[in-house]
Amino acid sequence: VKCYHGGGTFVWPLIQDCDYLNLEPIQIEIPLRGALSSENIRVNVPSVFTVAIGTTPEVMNNAAIRLLGLKRVDVEKQAQEIIFGQLRQVIASMRIEDINKDRDTFLSHVQNSLEPELKKIGLVLINVNITDLTDESGYIDAIGQKAASQAIQQARGDVAEQLRLGETRVVAANRDQLIQVSNATKERDIGVREAEREQAIRLAELEKEKEIGMHAASRDKAIRLAEMAKEQQIAEQTAGFEKESQVKTAEREMRVRTADANAAAIEGENLAQAKIAASKAELAVKNAEAYQVSETRKREAEGSVLEAQNRAMTKAALADAERVEAEKRAEFESVAKAHKATTIVEAEAVAERRRIEAEGDAKAIFVKLEAEARGQYEILAKKGEGFKQIIEACGGAQQAFQLLMLEHIDAMTAASATAISNIKFDKIVVWEGGGANGSSSTANFLQNMTRSMPPMMQVLKDVAGIELPDTLLKVSPDSLHAKAAAETTTATA
Asked: Is 429 inside a domain boundary?
C-alpha cells in the first residue's frame, strides 16, 4: 500500500486502484459512567475526544489497512471502544481528588495511554475535553463543600481580623483624643497658674514699692524737721548773742547784773541745748522705730508673696501629678480594653474556624467511608453472583465445593509439602511380626485406618462443614489385603 498526503501520483488502470481517506477531524462523545477509581468509588466522566487520520507514513499505512473503505460511523465506533477502555484504565490508576485537582496530569495520562492504541488503527489524538466529573456517592460534592467551608472560614477570619483592626484603630483614636484634650487642659492650667503667679509677683512688687515710697517720705519729713529745728536753734543762738552784747554794752556798769544776766543766759543756753539734744534723740528713736516697722512690714510682705508663690506652685504640681496619673490611667485602660476586645474576637474566630473544619472533615470522612463501603458491597455482590452462577452450573453447592477443591488441590498439596519439608527423617523401621490369625499386621493397620476414616469425615462435616467426595474415600477390602500381602512378601524376601 502506498499512501500520499497532499499530493498525487499516476494510477495504472486495471492494474492499480486508489481510494481516499477523509482527513477531517472526528469528534467522538464518550459518555463514560460508573468507572471505578483507585479508591473503588464509581465516577462519571463524560468527555469529548477529537481524533483524525494521521499524516505520518506509519500511521497512514495503518489507516489504509484498517480504516480504508469504512464509513465514518464505523471509524467512530472503533475509536470509541479503544477510548472507553483506556479511559477506564487511567481512572482506575488515579484517585478522585487527583483527577479533580490536577486535570493536566489526568489529561496527560489519558493522552499517553490512548495515543499508541489509536495509532495502531491509523488515528491520532488531537484534543481531549473533559466536560464533567461526578460520582453517585457524593464524594466530589463533599470535597467541594469542604473547600467552600474552608473559603467561608477564611473569609470569616478575614472579617474578624478587619473588625479587630477597626476596633483597635477606634481605641487608638480615642486614646489620641484623650491625650490631646489632656495636653490642652494642661497647657490651659499652666497658663492660668503662670498668670496668677505673675499677678501675685506684680502685686507684691507694687506693695513693696509703696512701702519704700512711704518710708522715703517719712525719712525726708524727718530730715526737714531736723533741719528746721537746727535753723531755729542757730537763730535763737544768734539772737541770744546779740541780746547779750546789748546787755553787756548797756549795763557794763552793772557787772553783777551782767554776771547774773550772763549766768542766766548761760543757764538758758544750756537748757536750750539740752532740749535740742533731747529732741534730736527722740527724733532719732522715732526714725529708727519707723524704719524697723517699715522693714518688718517689707519682710512680711515678701514672705507673704513667697508663701503665695509656694502655695501656687504646690497646687500646680499636685494638678500636674493628678493630670499625669489620669493620662496614664486612661492610656492603660484604653490599651487593656483594646487587648481584651482583640483577644475575644480572635478566640471567637479560632473557635468558629475549628468548628467549621471539624464539620467539613467529618462530612468528607463520612462520604469517603460510605463510598468505600459501597465499593466493597459491589465487589462482594459480584463475588456472590459469580458463586451463584458456579453453583447453578455445577448442579449444587456440594458439586461446586468439590470443583473449587479440585481447582485448589495443587496449592493445598504444595502447602502440605512445604509444612513437612523441613522435617528430617534419618531412617524408617517397619516391625512386622505377623497377625494372630496369620494375616499381616500392616494389612490390619490399613484396614483399621480405613474403618476410622468415615467417622473422621463425619466429624469434619459436622464441625467444619467439609465433606469430601465418596470417590476419595471408597477403598475395597480386597485391594487392601492384596497391598498388605505384597508388602509382607517384599519384607520377607
From this structure: no
Residue 309: left if φ>0, alpha if ψ -120 to 50, beta else—which one?
A: alpha
Query: What's this model's pTM, rounded to 2 decimal places?
Result: 0.33
- Closest to 85 (Cα-Cα) out of 58, 116, 59: 116
Give pLDDT tens digits for 296-306. Answer: 777 777 777 77
User: How far apart are alpha carbons 87 and 18 in whole angstroms?
Assistant: 36
- Phi, psi of 345, rounded to the nearest 5 degrees: -65, -45
Question: Residue 308: inside a domain, yes or no?
Answer: yes
Cβ neighbours around 162 below 10 Å, total: 10
Count the alpha carbons within 13 Å of 433 in the hemisphere toward its beta carbon: 1
Are the C-beta atoms of 92 and 38 separated by less than 8 Å? yes
For residue 491, pLDDT beyond 50: no
Q: Which domain holds residue 132?
A: 26-136
- Give the pairing type, strands 42-53 and 123-130: antiparallel
Q: For residue 112, give the amino acid letter.
A: N
Grid cell 466536560 — which residue? 131
Give the containing element (helix H, strand E) for 327. Answer: helix 255-394
Contact call for residues 394 and 64 (beta carbons, < 8 A): no
89: closest CA among 38, 33, 13, 17?
Answer: 38
Q: Is-contact 54 123, C-beta < 8 A? A: yes
Residue where a domain stops, chosen among 347, 362, 377: 362
pLDDT at residue number 193 = 86
Q: Is 137 helix (H, G, I), strand (E, B) or coil?
A: coil
Say if residue 294 is in the same domain as residue 170: yes
- For residue 209, give every residue at least 6 positions away whose Cβ sits within 8 Å of its Cβ, in sequence order, or none: none
- Three-state SS for 200? helix
Question: Among 160, 212, 138, 218, which residue's Cα sits nearest to residue 349?
Answer: 160
pLDDT in tens, 170-215: 888 888 888 888 888 888 888 888 888 888 888 888 888 888 888 7
pLDDT tier at 50 (50, 70, 90 boundaries)? very high
